[in-house]
Design brief:
The protein is α/β, with parallel strands linked by helices. The protein contains 13 helices and 8 strands. The chain folds into 2 domains: about 110 residues, 3-Layer(aba) Sandwich (Rossmann fold); about 140 residues, Rossmann fold, CATH 3.40.50. It is about 45% helix and about 15% strand. The strands form 2 sheets. A 4-stranded parallel β-sheet has the order 2-1-3-4, sandwiched between helices. The chain has a 4-stranded parallel β-sheet with strand order 6-5-7-8, sandwiched between helices. Helix 5 runs antiparallel to helix 6. Bound molecules: iron/sulfur cluster. The site of iron/sulfur cluster has 10 residues, from helix 2.
């Protein structure tokens, strides 16, 4: 089992005969309070691994281009004896450099054994179909989010992920506004359900959508696709991508979810300037620290935001 700390191409991990486990998926429901922390996500997965609460054989840390806080936590896990590899996204989106990163990753995992590229690509295509149903109001944001956010590790098993997709049933979702949730996924496990309660249907989860959007039928295609991962590289590409996706998803409003001590917080001003000031989308920022149900103060602010939308639309 290969622990991953952010988006690492699962296509390569499964093709090396290994299974991926996204350590972040244990965080929102964790009760652990780490003593030494900046970002709660990295501090909690570090403790879960060091205390043996989550069992992994090797660790792949995304050390650049996406999350920068994970680097030192990865070093701590490595110094405690866990074989660890540091994976970096090229800032200039060079697919040749990306391919070298994929080759180094494959080498760390013992080399490509049985190619799983086609099967992973097919599963991601099915996940994109669930995403379309969610956009059409045929699947709740909560259920759609679970499928999309699990696109990072495919639930640790391709069969398990396939079953989870097949179990999603069409339903009728009642909502007033179509919302895009930008930034890192919420650390509050009930966040999507709460938004639904106040009439806001999340039709676009920025980062989880990236998890299912990137794929490829071989290493070269995977490198080309992941080189365009929008959280890595210059933010100008991400802003352009967001503009097109907000239009495509017919979004009424934007919520930027940010995390205490995360460098992505610094992007809030750029996102606000572009999406609110330039494009005119109603915009609000929520900041979280430790995992918990959505706190009362955030609920009140979100309810007030929904009220404001009733005045705007
Ligand atoms: S919230 Fe930011 S610092 Fe924390 S794990 Fe995510 S990207 Fe890294």
């Amino acid at each position: 089992m290969i622990g991953i700390t952010a988006l690492v191409p699962a296509e390569v991990i499964y093709s090396c005969g290994e299974a991926a486990l996204d350590l972040n998926n244990f965080v929102p429901n964790s009760k652990l309070e780490p003593e030494e922390k900046l970002c709660a996500w990295t501090a909690i997965w570090r403790e879960l691994v060091l205390r043996g609460k989550v069992k992994i054989d090797k660790l792949v840390v995304v050390a650049g281009g996406d999350c920068y806080n994970a680097l030192v936590e990865g070093e701590k896990v490595e110094l405690a004896g866990k074989p660890t590899h540091y994976f970096t996204y090229p800032f200039d989106r060079d697919s040749k450099v990306m391919q070298e990163e994929l080759n180094a990753l494959a080498e760390f995992l013992g080399g490509i054994k049985e190619e799983a590229f086609d099967e992973v690509a097919e599963l991601k295509k099915l996940a994109l179909e669930i995403h379309e149903m969610r956009c059409n109001g045929e699947v709740s944001a909560e259920k759609g989010f679970l499928i999309e956010v699990s696109g990072s590790d495919l639930m640790g098993s391709l069969e398990k992920y396939r079953s989870a997709i097949e179990e999603v049933r069409e339903e009728e979702v009642d909502y007033e506004y179509r919302v895009a949730l930008l930034g890192i996924p919420p650390i509050y496990p009930d966040f999507h359900a709460f938004l639904q309660e106040v009439g806001m249907h999340v039709v676009f989860d920025e980062m989880p959508f990236e998890f299912i959007r990137h794929s490829g039928k071989n290493l070269k295609e995977v490198a080309r696709s992941y080189a365009n991962y929008t959280f890595a590289g210059h933010i100008k590409h991400r802003l352009r991508f967001l503009e097109s996706q907000l239009r495509r998803h017919r979004v009424d409003a934007v919520i930027h979810f940010q995390q205490f001590a995360c460098h992505h917080k610094l992007e809030d001003r750029l996102l606000r300037d572009y999406l609110y000031e330039k494009l005119g989308y109603p915009y609000m920022t929520i900041e979280a620290d430790l995992p918990s149900p959505t706190p009362q103060q955030a609920r009140l602010r979100l309810e007030a935001f929904a009220e404001r939308l009733r005045e705007v639309w």
